[in-house]
Amino acid sequence: MKVLITGIDGYSGWPLALHLLSRGHDVAGLDNLVTRKRVAEVGSWSALPIQSFPKRQEAVRRLLGKEVRFYKGDLGKWEFVREVLEKERPEAIVHLAEQRSAPYSMIDVHHAVQTQVENVTGTLHLLYAIREIVPDCHLVKMGTMGEYGTPNVDIPEGFFDIEYRGRSDRLPFPRQAGSWYHWSKVFDSGDVMFATKIWNLRSTDVMQGVIYGTRTPEITDPALFTRFDFDETWGTALNRFVAEAVLGLPITPYGQGHQIRGFIALEDSMQSLRLAVEHPAQPGEYRVFNQFDAAYSVNHLAEVTQKVAEAQGIHATIEHPPDPRVEAEQHHYNPIHDHLPALGYRRTRELEEALQEIFRDVRKYKRRLEAKRHVVMPAVSWRTGDNRPQLHARSAPTAPPTPEAPAVPAAPSLDPTRSPA
Amino acid sequence: MKVLITGIDGYSGWPLALHLLSRGHDVAGLDNLVTRKRVAEVGSWSALPIQSFPKRQEAVRRLLGKEVRFYKGDLGKWEFVREVLEKERPEAIVHLAEQRSAPYSMIDVHHAVQTQVENVTGTLHLLYAIREIVPDCHLVKMGTMGEYGTPNVDIPEGFFDIEYRGRSDRLPFPRQAGSWYHWSKVFDSGDVMFATKIWNLRSTDVMQGVIYGTRTPEITDPALFTRFDFDETWGTALNRFVAEAVLGLPITPYGQGHQIRGFIALEDSMQSLRLAVEHPAQPGEYRVFNQFDAAYSVNHLAEVTQKVAEAQGIHATIEHPPDPRVEAEQHHYNPIHDHLPALGYRRTRELEEALQEIFRDVRKYKRRLEAKRHVVMPAVSWRTGDNRPQLHARSAPTAPPTPEAPAVPAAPSLDPTRSPA
């Protein structure tokens, strides 16, 4: 199948390209490479060294004997989006090209605006280009389990049947996101659902759990490594815990650590996306997949990390700094996830086993962690709303420019006008 | 009370300024005046001639003996927003400054992006500026009943108590908007709800029904007129019907005309906003008002218009062109609206009486309708998605510029890169 991956240079995008290629699909991708810059903006880098995109293409040729086509550019540019779709005419698009960090979106007003503007604009451009150029193409859109928040009821896969005041309907499940980033994903879900309806498109909205892992069966060589972010802005809790243990720091679940989230191994996330691609939605169908494998508390993650570290000879303690986020620390969490198993999804990796692999890979690059030791702990607070002074080597958000990032100069005069007397 | 109105030059903003002034409040406002330009962009103008803002200020002084402070500028400019709030330190902000036309947002990809980017950016800027400068200020945010769509159950005021799989919670009612514009309002609702929670702000989200009318008790003189748009992009169905009748054209409800919406007279909408301002939300409270007075079908509007026209000696027929929107033409519609009556809201105007007044005002400016006769019928179709060729004197969206409006030039080269062999 002809697949286009937006955000092909990213943590999921790159292993997805490898996985789809190895399964015989024809793969092209686009990326503006901005995540590399933005991780540098907060003073960090990937713990595993990653190759430039041309070198990635070379490694794919050498190690997999395959070609991957690449377009450098930004979904914020309408003509770029149109021209890539004209050239590729994909049968499926996996849309991963979005600002993906919740803490980054919470840094200040400009990062908030930039995140929502970029993500919504890219998705709208893609939707219009699909309608115009490849209306039969299946859009697989990356969302997040975080769109739902933590309601006190079970979380269905996108829609639920309700009774209210004696009548019934099937409605989208309410979204209660927990950061500007998560809200941007909620907004995208609305736009994709609406476009699918009015233009009879095919779409799958993936409510992705937190992904963990450094390996898939295709990542057989360091030249094929995907990113491993461990700083407080770009790294997940689990990645930070591993970095802390390797650095001899305490492992630090935020707050009480009872927050529960859905998780999935990198390899199984790739399996899920492939299943979505290989079983497209019908014309006019907007379907939602809750794409996670198991729910764990943050404390559980910390304890498993501690245990795996211990087995590798690293003694780590666990400490609980205050939670910088505004989130329930005790809550119900039971999202339904039946759609992917119905397409044949089976778990292939267990958390502990993946953690052993992560430790093995990351410890080889301990010097890269040492060099960035200062970025592991939280500096961005959800509550204060303006975190610039506390941040490391941080100023305005990096390219691509959005209308309000960086800050615009003041209007010439702000005296209120009064009509002549 | 010290009130700042964003969008003070608009259809609601201006009468609200007059109403709050007449009730003794201290009123300032801001506006980028862009609606005036955008109505010109689609080849139209307000049927009732409206004064420039300096002349509006002069008329307020002359006729009401009051001052209204004005800042010309754009909520898209962060420094402008900050500086107005620094200067004014309002106790309440009524936020009306958004792109407000559904058909405008549906013209093409650039108008879609512009609408969502502008509306979300302005609201985020306002939220951050409130947090930073006037955290105790009450934000009254204009949304729309259209955020809810037309579910097959009753529509609560923002939140509802549900039972699902044996557990219960109070959740935001699901939104199913019907245009990019309506979705932008849904996005704003999410952002306002979230900011209120994390920063302990005070907010009221107004799910506004369709407003009709040319008069309030304060609009006693043509120098105080507010806009009356009648073209298919900026005018409501009712306004178009009046224009059609005055022009001797058939009245044209779209499709079968069974679509039901909530409506409220201009004067009663101003009463509602004043009540919201005078009864602020508590710190940390995000409350939702379904602000409409009665639900009518489009056919009912057409028939009452026909009847009132007849009584004024105008014979009009009713015709049903195909519906350019993608919407249910037969549906349940029973939104709850108890919150405003609990604050003392009472209906003061009836549809038929307001229509008589509208006809009296608009007929005096029949020449202004005649000059724009060609803009009353729909040219924008929700389904085709790109409507530029059919439109009147229309090119790229007008200022303020957004990242993707107007279209950006193509990237230099679009040959996919391949690594050297």
| Model regions low in confidence, pLDDT < 50 over at least 5 residues of chain A | 389-396, 400-413
Top-tier CATH class of chain A: Alpha Beta
Question: What kind of oligomer do you see?
Answer: homodimer
* Biggest contact: A-B, 87 and 87 residues
Summed over residues and divided by their number, the pLDDT of chain A gives a mean of 92
Tags for this entry?
3-stranded mixed sheet; 421 residues; homodimer; Rossmann fold; alpha/beta; 7-stranded parallel sheet
Topology:
2 copies of one chain form a homodimer.
Chain A: E1 2-6, H1 13-22, E2 26-31, H2 34-41, H3 53-64, E3 69-72, H4 78-88, E4 92-95, H5 102-105, H6 109-133, E5 138-142, E6 159-164, E7 167-172, H7 180-199, E8 202-208, E9 210-212, H8 237-246, E10 260-265, H9 266-278, E11 286-291, E12 294-297, H10 298-311, H11 339-342, H12 351-363, H13 366-370
Task: Summarize the structure in words.
Two copies of one chain form a homodimer. Chain A has 421 residues and is an alpha/beta fold. Chain A contains 13 helices and twelve strands. Chain A has one domain: NAD(P)-binding Rossmann-like Domain (Rossmann fold, 3-Layer(aba) Sandwich). Chain A has a seven-stranded parallel beta sheet, sandwiched between helices. In chain A, strands 9-10-12 form a three-stranded mixed beta sheet. In chain A, α10 packs across α12. The termini of chain A are far apart. Chains A and B meet through α3, β3, α4, α6 and β6 of A and α3, β3, α4, α6 and β6 of B.
